[in-house]
Amino acid sequence: MRAVLAACLLPFLAPAEAMACDVTKLGLEDKIAARSELQRSANEQTVRDLRTLRDAAIVLDAYKFEAECERLVTIVKTLTDDPAVAIEQSGDTDEDKAESIEQSREPKKPADKR
Residue 76: is it exposed, middle or buried by C-beta count within 10 angstroms (0-12/13-18/19+)? Predict the structure, then answer.
């Protein structure tokens, strides 16, 4: 009975660092440096996207969304393990969509409170 109780409580007694999402295990910059496909200027956007996804994982981890962070880490790992697929999938060239997204990124002024 004690063994069952101990097994049930073990995850709650583990150090917080062990349960947190480990974005550093990605080694994204090392993978980018090692992949010639990702070094080409035509693939700069793909590299920016990979870095953005990594940064998003860091934010999710900071806000204690460990499961979501781990999922994002898995996605980035999958894309960097097969850069050809990442490059192929990132081929969205819809300029109107890109412009709309870029506009949504710009900070807006707060509305006047009168």
Answer: buried
Summarize pLDDT for 61-106 with one digit per residue, the tens.
999 999 999 999 999 999 998 888 777 877 655 667 767 777 777 8
Residue 94: what pLDDT?
63
Cα–Cα distance between 88 and 70 in angstroms, integer?
Answer: 24
CB-side exposure of 109: number of CA atoms within 13 Å?
3
Could you state, in order of their start, the residue ranges of all structural domains in the chain?
Answer: 16-88
CB-based contacts of 38, cutoff 8 Å, min separation 6:
31, 32, 46, 47, 50, 83
CA atoms within 13 A on the CB side of 58: 10
Q: What is the dihedral of CA 26, 30, 41, 86, to 10 degrees?
A: -30
